[in-house]
Amino acid sequence: MKSQILIRPYEEQDKDRILKLLNDSFHQQQHLQIIRDNKWWEWKYENSVFGKPIIYVADVKQNIIGFRAFWPWKINIRGNVYNSYQPLDSAVDK
């Protein structure tokens, strides 16, 4: 029987598995010495000047196999303010 992929909002207990997925996915493509750890997570997602992002994960039997995040933005068009979201990091396990 094939496992079902569950797309769901991020939960705090997902963080370490997401960091592992991001590091595994990008370690060979990096041009800079980025360490994706708790400090990096706090900087990018928890304390961002843009606010808390919307984060979704793809989960198979409590294994994070995909990740997508969006920063919240406010766009002002002729005095009308609209909520919008800028796509951020994404990764999918091979």
Q: How would you sum up this structure, described in words?
A:
By secondary structure, this protein is α+β, with helices and mostly antiparallel strands. The protein contains two helices and four strands, in the order E-H-H-E-E-E. Strand 2 and strand 3 form a beta hairpin. The chain starts with 5 loop residues before the first strand and ends with a strand.
Mean pLDDT: 89
Helix count, DSSP H or I runs of 4 or more residues: 2
Largest sheet: 4 strands, antiparallel
β content, as a range? 35-45%
For the largest beta sheet, what order do the strands appear in spatially?
Answer: 1-2-3-4
- In one word, what is the shape? globular
What is this structure's SSE topology?
Elements: E1 6-9, H1 15-26, H2 38-46, E2 54-60, E3 63-77, E4 80-92
Primary descriptors:
single chain; alpha+beta; 4-stranded antiparallel beta sheet; 22% helix; 94 residues
In short:
With 94 residues, this protein is an alpha+beta fold. The chain is built from 2 helices and 4 strands, in the order βααβββ. The chain has a 4-stranded antiparallel sheet.
